[in-house]
Amino acid sequence: MYKCRVIRQGFKALKALDRLVAFLVFLDPILSVLRAIKNIFRYIGGGNSKLKFKNMGNSRIVFFFYTLWFIAAPLFVYAQISESDLPKSAYGLPVVNQVALYETIVRANPDNALVDLRGFIPHAKFDIRYAGSNNLIGRPLYPAPDIFMRKPAALALREAAKRLKASGLGLLFHDGYRPYEITVVFYETIKDTTFVADPRKGSRHNRGMAVDLSLYDLKTGKELSMPSEYDETTPRAFHDYMDTDAASIAHRTLLRETMEAVGFDVYPWEWWHYDFKGWQSCYTYDLWHAEIRNANRRLRRS
């Protein structure tokens, strides 16, 4: 909590300096420092980036170094946010389970944001099974049919949707980001780590880097056939299962080829599940969708 309080105080100081130096949105700590220094020089030089130090008074030199310190200090704090600094779950896994912590890591790197896919993916349909009882557990687990993905994965999904449109098809989403709390429920109910994640490691879904989806026909609105039902825990769900009709195999292959083309990897045991490359280096989140939506609104206003 102390570290989080230090981070929040540092960012408040940075926001105050925004009015003076037109501080840019964070890309990453190193770029932020470089661009902030550039803006400071422009301010001191009255808009001229080629400063003439011999004409500067002592007060402006002092102002320069104090400003540089207040900008750099929060960035050094951001750079220290590693998994070892995060709260631990009951299974010992570091998790982002505080809204303030989520906002901090998004400010440090916008790619850490979890994006609401509704309205973001063109021509998409949504059948969020864990908001109802038609799922692996047999009861509602989400309070609302929300679906979020980490920003880079969301952008890749939008590209996939654009490619499929040329074939008259759209993406049908069943699940995306999943709060870590739900992964614990899955594990303690199912136990089989072929179909549910080990909470000591967390799920790709918990990182906003895994998605469950299928295909539908843009004209008819009907879902395309697949070798098994979604969330089915039988060999028919496996990617190498071939004892089914040719159309279902073709649909599964088309989905796979499209997803791989935009940066996703298959999960061999579930034809509907895809992991975006680089998931291993991402934070594990344990926040509800409504909390994330509200945090994203605050971030856009800041």
What does this entry show, briefly?
With 302 residues, the protein is α+β, with helices and mostly antiparallel strands. It is built from 8 helices and 7 strands, in the order ααααβββαβαβαββα.
Report on the structure:
By secondary structure, the protein is an alpha+beta fold. The protein is 41% helix and 11% strand. It has eight helices and seven strands; from the N terminus they run H-H-H-H-E-E-E-H-E-H-E-H-E-E-H. The longest helix has 22 residues. The N terminus is likely disordered.
Poorly predicted ranges (pLDDT <50, ≥5 residues)? 1-8, 10-29, 46-56, 72-80
* Range of helix content: 40-55%
User: Any idea of the CATH topology of the largest domain?
Assistant: Muramoyl-pentapeptide Carboxypeptidase, domain 2
Termini separation comes to 22 Å
Lateral arrangement of strands in the main beta sheet: 2-4-5-7-6
- Report the strand count: 7
- Strand and helix order: HHHHEEEHEHEHEEH
Integer-rounded radius of gyration:
23 Å
Overall average residue pLDDT: 82
- Structure class: alpha+beta
State the major sheet: 5 strands, mixed
β-sheet strand percentage: 5-15%
CATH classification class of the largest domain? Alpha Beta
CATH architecture of the largest domain: 2-Layer Sandwich
| Count of individual helical segments | 8
> Which descriptor suits the 3D outline?
globular
